[in-house]
Structures are given as structure tokens and as C-alpha cells.
């Protein structure tokens, strides 16, 4: 009998619902072709719900989402809600509550996609960032004193646990092995200044590395990583780093792979419920205009199928994206694709 996967769909805010629609169209086409079923349940978590109810996530949200095999997310972020409320209350809350300790962000330049890096092509830009996703500066540790006075003090602490760091590093090595490309893991840190946090990272990194004699190791400070990503992106295969550095370098990564329109990611709990999303945000100014690029969401759907074990279907979607990008699209940018959002979805469906 054909397998059925229970997917929680969270379209979210802004252009999230539009790109999620196209993602689902493609997922359904793949399901039909590769003979599995998707049982989709929609959740309205996001800015509009918050404005209507005053609640970011209902009390049963985590329990409800946990009943699913995976979560497919559009975008969180609403122009009428103060920055931070939805991001912390929904996106970060779910990453933490579901212990999605890896944020996996491939940086792949597809043929015919424009990169701002002069002289670099698809052979040069093909790596993956493994970002720790539940610790570091994101945990909200710290506090303020004497707020609003000239003596105000603000402290924001980076929490790094041996367990959290080690499981992230181990994931990166396993991934490099599975990827089977350059077979190299680069630790991105700041050992010259953050001598507590990245000392722990560095020791854990080289200890774990001993278990992977087939994988080469490398180290780069985060500032240098930014430089090498522009100058010599071909040096990278798998980069492992902490939460904040991973956040920052993956925006740079998205730019060199053609922009937010094509950058997908997965919030992974290898033994739990993972959440897949386009990494670009809700882009509210494009909402409802049928101009936003759905390929990042479609790519997130592809990563989701890969994680669910539907490897062939995932490969078919990847090939379809490559084909549509190479043969049809003029640009990855909103409004400049040569097609509308829905039409790009249709092209990928046809190619699948
Ligand atoms: C991302 C985003 C989030 C992050 C924000 C919206 C909290 O920038 O997924 O990269 O910083 O992780
Ligand atoms: Mn980010």
C-alpha cells in the first residue's frame, strides 16, 4: 500500500501562502508520480491570527504539530506586528520546542542562474551550511538593568552546551559523508576573540573529526568565511557553525546562489519533527501580486521529501527545478522571472 505522510502546512504571512501553494502543487505532483500520499493539515499561525486573537501560538500548537511527519512553512513576519514578536513567538519557539537543532541551508548555484560573483559558476558554488539552531545567542539569555536611563546595561549571552555543539558537529560530518562530494567540513567560528564559546566548539570539532578519518577538516573565522565565500566559494563543502554566525553567513550564501527567491532550508530534528521553509521571509510588499519566486518554497518541499525518505521524488523535483531554471526563467528576482508565481509552479509541475 502507498505510504501516507502527515504534513502540517503553515503558510504564515505575506507571500508565504502564495509560495506554499506552489510548493504543495509540486509536492502533490511528485506524490502522484512516485505513489505516496500527503495528508495536509493547515495551521493559521502567523501575524493575522496574532492580530485577531492576541496569541502567537495556541497552547496546544506544539502538541498538534508533533502529530505530523513534517512541517511545511511559508514565512513568518507581518508589517503590522512589532519585529521580534512573531519571530520569537512562532519561528524560534517551534525550533526550540521541537528541538530542531540543525538548520540545514544548501548554497547551490544552478546552471543559468546569475550570481554576483564574477567568474564563478555552478562548479564553484555548491556547499551546505549546518547551522546550530537551538543555542548560542538565540536562547534569550541575559537581561537589562536600569532600562531607559543613562546607566542602562544590556547583556545578551551565548549559550553553548557540549551536547548541543557536539550533536551539531556530528551531523555536519555525517552529512559530508553522505553528500560524498569534497568530503570536507569547515568549522566557522571566532576562536581569536570568543575564547570561551569557540574553544568548546573547536575541541568538540577535532574530537568528533577523529571518528571520520575519511572527511577532511578546516577552520575559518567567521569574518574570513565571509571573505572566502565571495573569493573562493569552491573551497567549501560543509560549513558548521553556531546559530548567529549561521544566520548571517546564509544570507550571504543565498545571495551568491542567486538570491532569496531560490534559497531553501530545513529546521531538522533527526529524531523528531522537522520544519522546512524558504529562508527569505514574508516579503509583504509583493503579497498577492503573483510576482514572488516560489522556487525557494519548492526547494524546501524537495528537502522535506528527501528527509521523509522519498529520495526519488526529491531528486525528480530537484531535476525539475534545474530544468525550469535553465530553460525558462529570466531571473530569480520577484517580478523579473518572465513568469508569474503560479506559472513557475506550473512549469515545475510539468517538469516533474
Ligand atoms: C532566519 C531568520 C530568523 C533567524 C529570524 C526571522 C528570527 O532570519 O531563519 O534566518 O534569525 O533565524
Ligand atoms: Mn536569517
Please indicate the count of domains: 2
Bound compounds, each kind once, are: 3-isopropylmalic acid, manganese (II) ion
β-strand amount: 15-25%
Low confidence ranges = none
Strand order of the largest sheet: 2-1-3-12-11-4-5-10-8-9
- CATH-defined fold name of the largest domain: Isopropylmalate Dehydrogenase
CATH class membership of the largest domain: Alpha Beta
Based on secondary structure, the structural category is alpha/beta
- Kindly, what is the distance between the CA atoms of the first and last residues, rounded to a whole number of angstroms? 22 Å
Number of helices: 11
Run of helices and strands: EHEHHEHEEEEHEHEHEHEEHHH
- Shape estimate: globular
Helix fraction?
Answer: 40-55%
Overall mean pLDDT score?
97
Amino acid at each position: 500500500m502507498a505510504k501516507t505522510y502527515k504534513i502540517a502546512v503553515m503558510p504564515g504571512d505575506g507571500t508565504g501562502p502564495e509560495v506554499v501553494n506552489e510548493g504543495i502543487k509540486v509536492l502533490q505532483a511528485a506524490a502522484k508520480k512516485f505513489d505516496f500520499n500527503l495528508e495536509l493539515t493547515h495551521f493559521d499561525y502567523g501575524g493575522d491570527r496574532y492580530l485577531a486573537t492576541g496569541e502567537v501560538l495556541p497552547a496546544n500548537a506544539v502538541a498538534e504539530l508533533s502529530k505530523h511527519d513534517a512541517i511545511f512553512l511559508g514565512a513568518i513576519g507581518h508589517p503590522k506586528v512589532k519585529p521580534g514578536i512573531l519571530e520569537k513567538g512562532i519561528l524560534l519557539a517551534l525550533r526550540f520546542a521541537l528541538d530542531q537543532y540543525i538548520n540545514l541551508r544548501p548554497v547551490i548555484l544552478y546552471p543559468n542562474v546569475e550570481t554576483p560573483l564574477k567568474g564563478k559558476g555552478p562548479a564553484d558554488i555548491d556547499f551546505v551550511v549546518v547551522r546550530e539552531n537551538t543555542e548560542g545567542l538565540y536562547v534569550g539569555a541575559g537581561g537589562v538593568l536600569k532600562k531607559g536611563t543613562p546607566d542602562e546595561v544590556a547583556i545578551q549571552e551565548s549559550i553553548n552546551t557540549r551536547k548541543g555543539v557536539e550533536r551539531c558537529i556530528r551531523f555536519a560530518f555525517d552529512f559530508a559523508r553522505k553528500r560524498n562530494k569534497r568530503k570536507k567540513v569547515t568549522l566557522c567560528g571566532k576562536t581569536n576573540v570568543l575564547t570561551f564559546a569557540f574553544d568548546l566548539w573547536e575541541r568538540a570539532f577535532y574530537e568528533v573529526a577523529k571518528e571520520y578519518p575519511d572527511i577532511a577538516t578546516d577552520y575559518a573565522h567567521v569574518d574570513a568565511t565571509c571573505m572566502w565565500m565571495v573569493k573562493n566559494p569552491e573551497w567549501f563543502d560543509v560549513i558548521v557553525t553556531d546559530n548567529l554566525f549561521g544566520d548571517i553567513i546564509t544570507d550571504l550564501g543565498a545571495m551568491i546562489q542567486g538570491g532569496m527567491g531560490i534559497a531553501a532550508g530545513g529546521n531538522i530534528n533527526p529524531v523528531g519533527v522537522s520544519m522546512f521553509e524558504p529562508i527569505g521571509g514574508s516579503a509583504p510588499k509583493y503579497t498577492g501580486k503573483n510576482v514572488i519566486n516560489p522556487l525557494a518554497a519548492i526547494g524546501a518541499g524537495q528537502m522535506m521529501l528527501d528527509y521523509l525518505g522519498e529520495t526519488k521524488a526529491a531528486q525528480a523535483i530537484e531535476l525539475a527545478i534545474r530544468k525550469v531554471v535553465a530553460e525558462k526563467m529570466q531571473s530569480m528576482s520577484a517580478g523579473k522571472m518572465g513568469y508569474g508565481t503560479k506559472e513557475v509552479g506550473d512549469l515545475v509541475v510539468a517538469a516533474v
